[in-house]
Amino acid sequence: MLRHIVLLSSLLLLPFASYAQTSSSLASSKERISQVLGQVQDVLDSAAPLDALFDGANASRGSGSASSADPDYARLRQIKDVLSNGTSLDGQAIGPFVFNLQGGDRVSAQVAGLEGFVYAEAEIERTRGKQAAIGNLSDYFNYLDALLKPEPWAGEVRGQISALKASNLPASEKYDRLMDMVKGYTSDLQKQVASSDKSAWIKKARIYEIFPRAYNLAGKREAYGARSESPRFFADFKAKDLQQIKSLGFDAVWTMGIFPIGKRNVSGTGGGSPYSIRDHEALNPDLGAEEEFRAFVARAHSAGLRVIIDFVPNHTSMDSKLLLEHPDCFVNIPANQSNPHSPPYGYFDHYDSNSGRWLWIAHGGYESFGQVSPWIDTAQIDYSNPAMRREMSRIVKSWVLRFGVDGFRVDMAYLVLNSNFSRAWRKAMPPGEFLEQMIAGVKSQYPETGFIAEAYDNWDDLSRVGFDMEYGKNNMNRPGGHWGWYDAMQSRDPGWIREALGRAAFLRWQSGGSGMLDFVGNHDEASPQRAFGDWMFGASFLTLMMPGNLLFYGSQEIGFDKPSSNEPKSIPFNVPVQVDWAHPDQQIKSFYEETFAQAKQLKAELGDCDIEALDPVGAGWAGYILIGENGKKAAVVANPTNRTVSVRIDRPEHGVWASRTLQPLGYALIKL
Questions:
Q1: Which terminal Cβ of the chain has fewer Cβ within 10 Å, N or C?
Q2: Distance from first CA to last CA of the chain, Å, rounded?
């Protein structure tokens, strides 16, 4: 849900713009230490009625945290913290290591754990030589000791590092032995994650997003000379339709907008926003019955596809089941009983049949420049309320239990982090992050369940609470930097694109923290041809040839685009739209057919790949090398400029040298 686009619009204007981070990592880490070391017994059991609530001021009634989860999941989280998210010592967060190099340069690791340290050191040694970084040796020992100290199971390697520090070996030999030791230990921990992280599939998943209301499956079939068999979407989506998606190289389908939509203050004439949800636990009856969705999930699994659905934690519709039953679970203020129908801005009137009184309920919203901007067809859930947290967690788990769904794309996830929610709504929060409790609760019972955060801020906080993936849209101001994929591609700036490629390469290599979900379009964005213009083909090629995860919006493959006057999405929510499969843009259709085929062939030739960003500073192009598990290599390059450029790839450590001329906005796959 990118209706906060006004807030982000400035990011599209200037290369390397930063999206301001709104909470400090220190405050977040103190909060996590508090929940781990100072847990209190939850006096509200999971079956407690939702009317026995409080406003969050009594922290002793907070619900449990991830540390109360299944022991295997808890240990996996500890390993991931050491690898990527960082640990905390004496209430202080261990941040990304900063290398102070000869000549005064400073280079920050991308994450706080071992993976950030090892990756940055290797890149420094590759580009500047060992001598550039050897002066940090004493700092390395101190950092590693502090990082590992909170975890008792790391005691053995911590002792080995301490013994090496105390030895009389020359500094150069100490450096080499330390790096060998740390790289080996990092690799061992990565292998432990690989063997125990059952939801890691989502970090490599190529996801095909479907908007059922507009997808027009009948029209798609008719375009190929076939017919539909049922008016209900999930009953009509047969094995052959799923196999066709699988044949394009996708691993998962995200069925977006499958819940019943609220009627009060419904937006537009197209059926309303799919994110104004009347019942988070029900299916939209227009799309099918429960047994039909269950059968759809089973058919998808048989076709080799996982199924992802939305979870919308921040808000419901204005006439939702939850609001009608438990208005005290929503952000509200007492209404003027003599004039209840004139609420202040950002609120709406609601009659509470339980108390016989009117309330003013806050619209769901997001903070923008110190004020909350509302979505006027929604109601704001109150996450200072522990019982409400448990209820939403139960609902998420129920979709896995009842239907076997494989993952969730969590809408506007960062809005319900304690720091953001407390600041926006002036609420005292119970201990622990709701999102951490929710993810831990699901994964402890269903460890294969993947979680994707739609987020435009708070990258590290969302990684720490357990998200597998986060949106790769915009830059974020964080230690170690973060360059968003989508905005970099839209910028056409080769330098920005190279930074985004470097960030994407690291996040694909690391295993401890969130991965980045890259895309050139989704249901919130303009069509790729409008967003990127004639650079669409190059931007899409760079994205689709990446190994592993990406998000692709169904209908992009034919160039469909039908925005409304006030909604720039390719498929707007506020007017009726059906994808016209019978009249594709032939140039776009041919491009995607060819690129899907190339990506599949490349995957077959290379298998699982490592990726390394190329760094041709000032050369006017960008790209990356793919290094297959079988030793085969390839390069993907593109020219976002309006001039001809010369591509030169010289990576002797991989035995790679190549050259190519790229025409303006050109792109190429180079077998090496």
A1: C
A2: 41
